[in-house]
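Appendix B, record 7
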Amino acid sequence: MTTVTNTAGPLAPPLSLEAYAHCFLTFRKHSTEWLAMLRWSQERLLPRLPVKSPFAVLSVGAGNGDFDRRFAPLLHSRLKNMEYVMVEPNAALCRRLRECLAGHAGEGVRFEVDPLTFEDFAIRRIFDLVHFTHCLYYIPDRQAAIDHALKAIGPKGLVLIFHQTPWGIDQVQQRFLKRVKGSDQEMFTSREIQAILERGGIPYHLEEVESHINVSECFRPGSAEGEALLSFFLESDVRHLDPALKQEVLAYLHNLTYSREDRRLLHHPVAIFSLPPHKDRE
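Structure tokens (predicted):
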């Protein structure tokens, strides 16, 4: 992130799309979240999947495909003939995704990228696996999205939801997001997903998988990576944040973390929901 003059005020300005992407990549660098999700998929998901040909996968809100490019080969290690469909409403991300996938499908894998919102994605085939990977935050009607996904899977299919728990980043957001950003309306954790599923009478299995974030850089004055992490947590450019409030955020973050080998680690587990077919919603 480039250096700017601090113009502290009561609220920090929102992140641009470019800045958000940079902050997300910084978060990913310091987090074990994706490793935990992929390990769970290797150990817990793969043995459950029926070996059929072709095996059809739907990725909702694929973004630039960073997770899918790791998840698809893992699935392909068991499923030799696979159709992998990615839905992403951002046209620029779709173009980048197609460029990244060109020539990398591998034998027995067919990728398809659809530049649509999930609401506009017509179910024209039956899928064996539908996954929402940290994307339900951005879908306005989450209940409708889950219903739509359940209608897309076959009798032995599965819907997976990887999502943020109320621990870690959410604890920081609960305390400070409204004060820093001016709104906390976008906060949405696994607890809210549970409430949606239980209200709808939708069967599910929930596991919490351990992961953490190395936040040591946040406590190093002038660290660009530390500010990028804080900006990702608070969905705002904290370089412009009132210094007193910023120190309050750091003090709270320090209290949440624990020390290991000279690193400050924030407990940040991943919630993984598994939803089998639901006959009442067919």
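Remarks on this record: The chain has nine helices and ten strands. Residues 1-8 have pLDDT under 50 and may be disordered.
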